[in-house]
Amino acid sequence: MTATPPGAQDSADRDGTGLVLAGATVVLPTGTVENGRVAVDGTRIAATAPEHARVLDVNGHWVVPGFVDLHNHGGGGASFAGGTAEQVLQGVHTHRLHGTTTVVASAVTGDLDFLARHAGMLAELAQQGEIAGIHFEGPFISPCRKGAHDEQLLRDPDPAEVRKLIDAAHGHARMMTLATELPGGLDSVRLLVEHGVIAAIGHTDATYEQTVEAIDAGATVATHLFNAMPPLGHRSPGPITALLEDERITVELINDGVHLHPAALQLAFHHAGPARVAFITDAMDAAGFGDGRYLLGPLEVDVEDGVARLVEGGSIAGSTLTLDRALKRAVTVDGLAVEDAVAALSANPARLLGLADRVGSLEPGKDADLVVLDAGFDVVGVMRRGAWVVEPRLG
């Protein structure tokens, strides 16, 4: 396969006559179609093949929607949480090479003024269509469940400060993770909902009852379910039970084989159901790049054998996951149905983000965002808005 380099706007030469991918197993919202066809006309998926369209034989392959990552801190050696615009684009391109055609840039806990300034830069990239918006993970989280966040910079979720970050994002704030049991937490959830921002419960020490209160106030996402929250107990069911049982909640899962035992993933799918699961990467700079020492916000991280841990304390510090690996593991290791795994990478997060009219499924009129996979679920082609990011080289 070949990949267009960063700076080439992820575009390949096209003759403008359209394209038909023929012969693949195609995953559609209505089910999987053998020997299927996907027509592309310009930047969109077409209902019928454009006149004089070129036909690409992808027999023996899968064609699935482009992946949508709603929680991602970087990749390719670059950080979304503190990097320059050029570095953010480098990280975005890295994830595109692995099939993620839509990505939300996640910030980590930092000084409030810095976060506001950085949000302004990310908002410009969102305006340009390079990212799908901004996710603030911190600083309004629990010191008891801080994970890889700097405890010195944590604070209670003051609605005025929450509003400052919303305003700094200039309409591109998509989600904020809160420990909703902290003072100001419920009022902050209501404020987020009022401004069309997803309120996510995470890095929390909440009880079951406090979590139910937050859901009733408008929270709709569980930030990396199971991680950075109290475990499920038979007398203290905690947030996990409340988040799994409520139909209003979409649960994020990091399916890298490190953050979750396979049985935990199966538990989530069984109780939430496949329509309420969103696979995320929670990736940091090392995703698609390699082992070494990195910064996650102000904290040093060592990555060894693909596992990221804080230098001080050893807590897991995000992941080096890309969504193609999450899909392959879901199908080949966890035994999930391909349709359910694909929905968790595409339709479910797209719907949650309010982008389902454009991305998340292979339907006429939507952006021509798609991934070509071989029989072993490895990426051989990636198209974004009708242009090849990774152009398949098929025998």
From TrEMBL:
Protein residues bound to Zn(2+): 137, 203, 224
UniProt catalytic activity: N-acetyl-D-glucosamine 6-phosphate + H2O = D-glucosamine 6-phosphate + acetate
One of the Pfam families matching this protein, by short name: Amidohydro_1
Transmembrane segments: none
Entry keyword annotation includes Hydrolase: yes
Cofactor note: Binds 1 divalent metal cation per subunit.
Protein name: N-acetylglucosamine-6-phosphate deacetylase
Residues of the active site: 282
Family per similarity comment: Belongs to the metallo-dependent hydrolases superfamily. NagA family.
EC code(s) of this entry: 3.5.1.25
The Amidohydrolase-related domain, residue ranges: 62-389
Binding locations of substrate: 148, 227-228, 235, 259, 316-318
Originating species: Streptomyces fumanus
PANTHER family: N-ACETYLGLUCOSAMINE-6-PHOSPHATE DEACETYLASE (PTHR11113:SF14)
Cofactor: a divalent metal cation
NCBIfam families in alphabetical order: nagA (TIGR00221)
InterPro entries named in the record: Amidohydro-rel, GlcNAc_6-P_deAcase, Metal-dep_hydrolase_composite, Metal_Hydrolase
Species classification: Bacteria, Bacillati, Actinomycetota, Actinomycetes, Kitasatosporales
Top EC group: hydrolase
GO MF, one example: metal ion binding
Pathway this chain belongs to: Amino-sugar metabolism; N-acetylneuraminate degradation; D-fructose 6-phosphate from N-acetylneuraminate: step 4/5
Keywords, in A-Z order: Carbohydrate metabolism, Hydrolase, Metal-binding
GO annotation terms (biological process): N-acetylglucosamine catabolic process
